[in-house]
Amino acid sequence: MMGENYGLIAAETKQAYERIKAYVRKTPLDYSPWLSDSCSVYIKREDEQITNSFKLRGAVNKVQKLCQATDTKLKIVTASSGNHGLACARSVTGTDVDCTIVVLENISSSKVKGIKRTNATLKFHGTDCVETELFAKNYAEEIGALYVSPYNDPDVVAGQGTIGIEILEDLPSVDAVFISVGGGGLISGISAFMKNRKPDIKIIGCQPENSKVMYESIKHGSILDIESLDTLSDGTAGGVEQGSITFDICKDLVDEWVLVSEDEISYAVYKMLQEHCKVVEGAAGVAIASFLKTKNQYAGKNVVIVSCGGNISVEKLKYIINKHEGD
């Protein structure tokens, strides 16, 4: 999927931006004095997106395209570790789309509460993303609904890529972008658009050491079925669906990979609260921690870190504060 195909994704991303801009927030690109030691660092604040996560962009693009393509009542089923479920629930608000969200049994309590405030139907199944996704696919077929993947869908990828449009509008001189990776929808959309517009930009994929399925799969050359351990980055945890379109995009367009420990993730979340008075979730902490770990490589550069979400439970936040208080 090199060259021309990525140009097509970039074109789809431009169309997606026109489709979703009335429904999503153009999030700030905030300069970070704390992180800007030897380089200039900006944080793309998707934690301030409606639903407090970038996932709304892809979900809105998918739902709007489906609604425009049919006159009949739609039923959709999706699988989620939380943020994509919240996004789909928000995306169908004001429509007559029937939405069922299958979530992991160990989903964050804050994300459960958010979904329960909507009209979506909530189901629990499994403790790994691939397991939950397979159940949701089968359930969709059983009830005659359309399955909407959280990442393995070109419309979802194009929606997430709209973040790249906003970054280039606000900071055309950007040299490198740090992006957290789970299934790869976010980094696939951003990298396909930004590399098409600015081929020399560096895309850095960031994963927790405890759940590094995409990283290990890229190293191996095919998608692996390997165990993920518990991680504060629940939004990126778990496996990657076999045949996912995101694998080839990540293999072709991600320039470097950084793995971070749980201590590094929690420290990054804590420092965002301390330095910026902002609450971010573990998945956002992964990208921030990855920059902190490699910042000496970016002296004199303009760097963007995508803070992908802010949905963290009070319990996890208390744990992080207690762990790092005094650091």
Question: How would you portray this structure in words?
Answer:
Helices cover 46% and strands 16% of the residues. The protein contains 12 helices and 10 strands. The strands form 2 sheets. The chain has a 6-stranded mixed beta sheet, with helices on both faces. The chain has a 4-stranded parallel beta sheet with strand order 5-4-3-6, sandwiched between helices. Helix 1 packs across helix 6 and helix 10 packs across helix 12. The radius of gyration is 18 Å and the shape is globular.
Give descriptors for this structure.
327 residues, 4-stranded parallel sheet, alpha/beta, 6-stranded mixed sheet, globular
Distance between the termini: 45 Å
Q: What average pLDDT do the residues reach? A: 94
Q: What would you call the structural class?
A: alpha/beta
Question: What fraction of residues sit in β-strands?
Answer: 15-25%
One letter per element, helices H and strands E, the order comes to HEEHEHEHEHEHEHEHHEHHEH
Number of helices: 12
* Low-confidence region ranges: none
Lateral strand order in the biggest sheet: 1-2-10-7-8-9
Number of strands: 10
Q: Overall 3D geometry?
A: globular
The percent range for helix content is: 40-55%
Topology:
Blueprint: H1 4-20, E1 29-31, E2 40-45, H2 55-69, E3 75-80, H3 83-91, E4 98-103, H4 109-116, E5 121-124, H5 129-143, E6 146-148, H6 154-170, E7 176-180, H7 185-197, E8 202-208, H8 213-220, H9 245-253, E9 256-260, H10 262-276, H11 282-294, E10 302-307, H12 314-324
Parallel strand pairs: 2-10, 3-4, 3-6, 4-5, 7-8, 7-10, 8-9
Antiparallel strand pairs: 1-2
Helix pairs in contact: 1-2, 1-6, 1-7, 2-3, 2-6, 6-7, 7-9, 10-11, 10-12
